[in-house]
Amino acid sequence: MTKNSNKMPIAVLISGNGSNLQALIDAQPTANYEIKLVISNRPSVKGIERAQNAGISTLVLDHKAYDSREAFDLAMIEALDSKHIKAVILAGFMRILTPEFTSHFLGRMLNIHPSLLPKYPGLDTHQKALDAGDKEHGLSIHFVTAELDGGPVILQAKVSVDANDNVESLKQKIHALEHQAYPLVADWLASSKVELKDNQVWFNNHLLKSPIDFDQALVNKS
C-alpha cells in the first residue's frame, strides 16, 4: 500500500464478515483516507482476514475479556489514539458504545444503519419494514452520538420494497448500496466536506436541512 501523509488516518471497527470494510479498502487508492487500523471485538472473523490481506494493521479486543463496557471502550480509545487515528468508521460493529467513547470521537465517527432513520433503529430493520408494509426501505449514514442510531443523518439511499421481497432480498439490495455509499461518505469526512457542528450536519459549509439523497449525490459527483 502506498503511504500518503496527506490522507486522513482512519480506523474501521468490525464484528464479523467485513463486507463494508472491503468496500472501504477497495475505494482507498483514490480516497482521502487511509485505513491504519481495523479493530474487531470478536476473534477469527472474516473482516480481520480482509484487512490483513490488504496489509492493514489489525487488533482483536475481545469484549468478553473486559469486566465492563467502560473498560473495553477505554482499551479501544487507547489503541486508536496510539495510532493517531483521526476518524472512526463503524462497519457492522455490534457493540453499544459508551458516552465516553462517543464523546472522544464526536464529529469524527460514522455509522451505517440499514433503515431510513429515524425509522427502525436497532435490529431486525428489514423485517420491521416488511411488517409495516413499507413501499420504500433503505440505509442511513450518520454521525455517531451517545444516542443509539440517533446521530444526525448525512446521507440516505433508498430501495423499493416489492411484493415478492423478503428479509434476505432486502438485505441484498441494501448491501449493494452500502458498498457504494459508505466509501463516498467516509471520503467526505476525510476531506472535510462533511462536518458536525452543534449536532447538525454541514456539507460544503452549508447546513443540511435534510439528508443527502444518494442518487442525487452520484449525479453531482459525475
Q: Would you identify the regions where 5 or more consecutive residues have pLDDT less than 50?
A: none
Tally of strands: 11
Distance between the termini: 27 Å
Which secondary-structure class do the elements indicate? alpha/beta
Share of helical residues: 25-40%
CATH topology name of the largest domain: Rossmann fold
| CATH class category label of the largest domain | Alpha Beta
Please state the overall shape, judged from the principal axes of the Cα atoms. Answer: globular
Strand order of the largest sheet: 3-2-1-4-5-6-7-11
Main beta sheet: strand number and arrangement? 8 strands, mixed
In DSSP terms (H or I, runs of 4 or more residues), the helix count works out at 7
Rg from Cα: 17 Å
Beta-strand content:
25-35%
**Global mean pLDDT:** 95
Describe the structure.
The protein is of the alpha/beta class. It folds into two domains: about 1-105, Formyl transferase, N-terminal domain (Rossmann fold, 3-Layer(aba) Sandwich); about 110-220, Rossmann fold (3-Layer(aba) Sandwich), CATH 3.40.50.170. The chain is built from seven helices and eleven strands. It has helices at about 20-25, 45-55, 70-80, 100-105, 125-130, 165-190, 215-220; strands at about 10-15, 35-40, 55-60, 85-90, 110-115, 135-145, 155-160, 195, 200-205, 205, 210-215. Strand 1 (about 10-15), helix 1 (about 20-25) and strand 2 (about 35-40) form a beta-alpha-beta unit. Helix 1 runs parallel beside helix 6 (about 165-190). The two termini are about 25 Å apart. The model has no long low-confidence stretch (mean pLDDT about 95).
